[in-house]
Amino acid sequence: MKRTATAIWNGTGKEGNGNLTTQSNILNKTPYSYTSRFENGAGTNPEELVAAAHAGCFTMKLSFVLGGAGFTPTSLETTCGITMENGAITNSHLVVKGVVPGCSADDFKKHAEDAKANCPISKSLNTNITLEVQG
Known about the structure:
By secondary structure, the chain is α+β, with helices and mostly antiparallel strands. It folds into two domains: 5-38, no CATH class; 46-134, 2-Layer Sandwich (GMP Synthetase, Chain A, domain 3), CATH 3.30.300. It has helices spanning 34-38, 46-68, 105-118, 120-124, and strands spanning 5-10, 17-22, 30-33, 75-85, 88-99, 128-134. The strands form two sheets. Strands 1-2-3 form a three-stranded antiparallel β-sheet. Strands 4-5-6 form a three-stranded mixed β-sheet, with helices on one face. Helix 2 (46-68) packs across helix 3 (105-118). The chain starts with a strand and ends with a strand.
């Protein structure tokens, strides 16, 4: 399996602008710029997309891990916060809440740690990954 995305950028790093398009066209010429990345301007940014990818990948992996242990989650909700300092992503912080009938809080935390360590996005990130389990 191979997935693709295309970035187009015009102009300088600070004054320029660009757009992102994914293979699925969910992002289709979605704008990004210096202000959307480093300030509060309109548009997306790479760090936001990494956060979405990590939250989505981790949550799906957790569902698979729970299923493998005999649990069927009613709902899983993950928020991911990406920290960027001095031009590098220094942390990806996952916060997960789950409703998993029959699964104790200790077992849920254990399965969440497994998912954190083994989801493909976690494996691809060269940064500190932290996890907070709620509920």
